Every structure is written in structure tokens, then in C-alpha cells.
């Protein structure tokens, strides 16, 4: 028995949708399982030495103050994005966050290397990790 063309087309569309959803789900698994908060922030200081700074609630609160001074006008008061992207649940490493704050992004975000030292940048990283 031969199925009508419409039913065969519908079956093909359903199969394509399932394959698409399945591949999207498989790609999202590593993102979902990445830790969103680390107890230790590791990055390379300006002297080229790897630094580990324990992230505490106090450090996150200091970072919140720095965020309000330097970041909120682009990323929004609640860090959900405005001109800049949403900063909640970042899936990049603490070192990458620190490097981005320090070096900026050409044409998109200024550098804060002269404004904040390594400890202050760690405070900003701690604050960003506290965002849920």
C-alpha cells in the first residue's frame, strides 16, 4: 500500500525536526554540565604568574560595587544585558572572564587593565559567578 504524498511529507518533516532537536540537545549537554561557579579563580597576572584567589561572598560584594561603577551602563543594572551581553551563567572560564575584563574586546568593550588591579578583577569575576 502506497501512502499519500502529504503523509509521507509529514513523516519526513517530523523526522527532520526530531533529528534537529536531537543534535541541538547533544550539543547542549556539555554546556549544561559546565560548572557555573568555582570556589577558586585562576588566571595569569600581569607578571605572567598564575594566581589563585579564593572567591568569597565578600569578594563578590566588592565586585558588585566595581560592576556598578564600570559595567552596568552597558550590561544593565541587573547584568541581563543592554548594549553589552547578558552576564548571567557564563560558560567561559574564570581566566577568560578576567582576561576579557583586563584586555577588553576591540571595538566592543574597553580595557580595564589600568583601572583595576588583579584583586579587583578577581572581585568582578566573583560577582559575575554569583549571578544566577
Question: Which descriptors would you attach to this protein?
Answer:
132 residues; mainly alpha; Cytochrome Bc1 Complex, Chain D, domain 2; 2 domains; 53% helix; 8% strand; elongated
User: Runs with pLDDT <50, length 5+?
Assistant: 31-39, 43-51
Mean pLDDT: 81
Number of domains: 2
Q: Widest sheet: strand order?
A: 1-2
Could you describe the largest sheet, including whether it forms a barrel?
Answer: 2 strands, antiparallel
Count of DSSP H/I helices: 5
Within CATH, the superfamily of the largest domain carries the name Cytochrome c-like domain
CATH architecture of the largest domain: Orthogonal Bundle
- Euclidean distance between termini CA atoms: 56 Å
Q: What top-tier CATH class of the largest domain fits best?
A: Mainly Alpha
Helix share bin? 40-55%
3D architecture notes:
With 132 residues, the chain is mostly helical. The chain has 2 domains: 1-34; 38-130, Cytochrome Bc1 Complex, Chain D, domain 2, CATH 1.10.760. 53% of the residues lie in helices and 8% in strands. It contains 5 helices and 2 strands, in the order αββαααα. The chain has helices at residues 5-33, 57-70, 72-75, 94-103, 118-130, and strands at 40-44, 50-54. Strands 1-2 form a two-stranded antiparallel sheet. Strand 1 and strand 2 form a beta hairpin. The longest helix is centred in the N-terminal third of the chain and has 29 residues, at 5-33. The protein is elongated, with a radius of gyration of 21 Å. The model is unreliable at 31-39 and 43-51 (pLDDT under 50).
